[in-house]
User: Fold these one by one.
Assistant:
Number 1:
Amino acid sequence: MKADQAKTEMRELWDKSFNGKWDGEIKAPAIAKAKELYPHLDDDEKRFAYHALGRKGVALKGEKPSSAPAVFVGDWTEDEYKGYDCGVRWNGWASPWFPLEVVKELVKEQERLAKDCAECPILRLDGETLINEYDGETERINPTLVKTTDGEKMLYDCGFGWTWEVKLEDEE
């Protein structure tokens, strides 16, 4: 019974990593890819769980998943920001990583919003350090070398506990 439940849970994780699409067109290539990526694992169920957890930002066996390019939106703005998604979520919300040029755009947007909002977070750059001031707290964020699907990039962790979402390709 416990083994069947564990397999079901692993399958659910795998299914979610494909947005619920688990048909013949995806299943066979996915299994083949999992075998290629994780030859050290001895069965498909372990590979499925390993892949699904890796997509959620869980590092297994000391490996870190690569961050993929993504477009992020927040519920406080209509602007879109291009960055990288490593799959980590905070209370279900995305935690984007942005390059310096995008951080500069975000700082400008927050400066504009703060003019009309006394409770809005204030972002500013001090050299290459991003300063996030909110509710009497100050957070200093330095760029970090992050492994991405585009190679290694210097990026800023800009989750901030904000309500970010990854914009899907089919969303207008």
Number 2:
Amino acid sequence: MFNQKAAIFEERSEVIDQIEYDSDQFIITLKAPKAAKAAKPGEFAFVDCGENTLLRRPLSYLRTNPEKETVEFMYKIIGPGLEALSKMSTGDYVQMMGPIGNGFNHDPLKEIPVFIGGGVGIPPVLFLAEYLKKSNQNITPYAFFGSEIPFPFEVVTSNLTINGLNEADNKTIKDLAPNSIVGTSSFRREFQLKKIREDLNYKLIRGNVDTRIKKLKDNLYDAIILSYAGIQSLNLKENISQIFSTSEIIPSTGQGVVALQCRENDKELINLLDKVNHQLTHSCVLAERNVLKVLEGDCETAVGVIANIDRDTINIEAELFSLDGKKRFYHKASKNLSSAYELGKEVGEILKKESKNSYKR
């Protein structure tokens, strides 16, 4: 039994209007009687434009108007899904599923500046900063997440914080002196960073984020590696001096994915979860986990795997290190999206064969 607020429904919605208010940035208005009454700004909806163009992330409702039975979404073109959405015109139809999330309490008659952010839990400001600069009002803008906008326009897995420096200094790991002490709690990250700077001294660091930063400021380390999302959520961004891309530090399997588990015989709950399951993410995670499954990886296995989807193709990139980190085994491959399961298994088998179990005790 679900109350009305928690109910999730599907609705076929007609495009009423669409405007490009800045380069590759759009506001689309949809005729959606159900959503207009049930949803509110800040909540999310999955949008399917047809022809396998389900957006990889849900969009945030910008405005809802129960009287006119319309809803609006704001988005920026990042990826084929949103590109397809931007080409839709009056009279076209999309399929929506939602609302999910908590939304915002707001005065619908009050003008509020809106910032677009990318990724739930990662609130970067990407647009309309000029609005605040020109305004003398003391106002708080909304931050909209889940808009299929990775920050900063690529997947970010880790950050490097260098003691005594901040983001404005524009320093990187290459600026550290030889034998500088770098703290990390991950063998994978240690071995990956050694590809960049083998002459640094990598040491284990433990504790929560505050504890680790304190150790850095107490000069026990010259630099530490931390999760970008964690630093951002704790408002400690001023400590960041370098952000690594996934081409530099391939993340661990399924990193950043939220998974839900239920009883295998709970058909009602399984049916509900099927409706909110994001199939493209599911395919990526399935491929990534199959690599790990073939390798029989555990907490001591230094392995990084990341999958991504480009239209009907799934790509996977993986690297595996020997126990001492001196040997690196790398493989990159692609298959049709329908073969995500097999792709992960094949990549795992290749790495296992090439490594000759040198990653195992």
Number 3:
Amino acid sequence: MFGIVLLVVGVVTLIFYVVTAIDASLGGRRIAKLGDISPIDEADSPSVSAVIPACNEERKIRQALTSVLGQRYPRLEIIAVDDRSTDSTGAILEDMSRSHPELRVVHVRELPSGWLGKNHALEAGAEKASGEWLLFADADVVMDATALARALRHATVHNFDHVAIAPRATVGGFLANSFLAPRKSARPEAPVTDELEASVKELTTVVAALTERVDRMSAK
């Protein structure tokens, strides 16, 4: 009897995970890909203030900030927030601002009571912003030169107030690449309906086999 209960629990668990995987796959297909969206026309571009908080990011801040400065977007101001860094982050930001007038640097020396560090840094940058839109990005995110223009096209066409963009992760090491790095398919992706039908058929086969086994065990 106990074995039958375990088997039933296993079947239910399997169904749950398969259904969840199908739902996640179908949901992922519905998410717009930034690379498929055309950049917004210059005449339609709203002003944007990019707020980049940085705490001890001396190794990555220059490359990330250079990519933001290189955005092909006409109405962009950039506010980099040195959030109590103890390395050379603040000095790097000041050095970059001397050759880029669109870059403003805010230095946070102390964290006020009741605040979390990053939240406060974002607030400090937003207070200095003048753009119609706010772009919040981490200090290690390297952007394609058209990323902002494509995101604003998507937001304005659909009349969105908020857009979240998932980055493509760059990882190092064999294990990390095995599990996290994106893989290129050797064949074109099947239509969603074909993929769903195949998944349902596979699930039906597995459930039928497990049900038959439960029936045999019950008959003994």
Number 4:
Amino acid sequence: MQLCCTKKVLDYLKVQPEAVEFVDPLFSWHVNMFILCRKKALLLVNDLSRYPILLFGIKKADVRNFNELILNSISMQLTGAGFGQARVAEYISRSGNVSILKTHNRAVLSHCSQMAFLAGYEVEDLFFDELLQPVFSERAASLIYKIETGNGRDYYRPRDLMAEGLGLLVR
């Protein structure tokens, strides 16, 4: 699995990005950090489907095991969203080792910015005592976005594209 981090995230984690070739966009996530209600938030956005996962209230102690935190968050969110335990387990097992890279796709970064902006308006639905924010993630994943796919540009829901990607893994 590839985590393409913004400069702000790389500086916060105090890591150097690896020089690795890019893999299947289904296994690649862009990670952005922003301030929401005076707390740090991490937003993960899948490169293929633009499926968002919001982690709210990040602290230094949380990022000591950053790779494990991200894998657990992705697994919990996808399972909680109803994608099925078997599909999510297959996705996590096929994702491979976690590698941290620089961002490379401006379109995905644009979606990160849009979803961070949307999170500012969804403050009343945030769980201030939990790290993972499933309500926001599901609400943002059910909105329609203009996403460029292999068939050209079209309008999709990130939830539908993620379900399609996970469905292809199990077959």
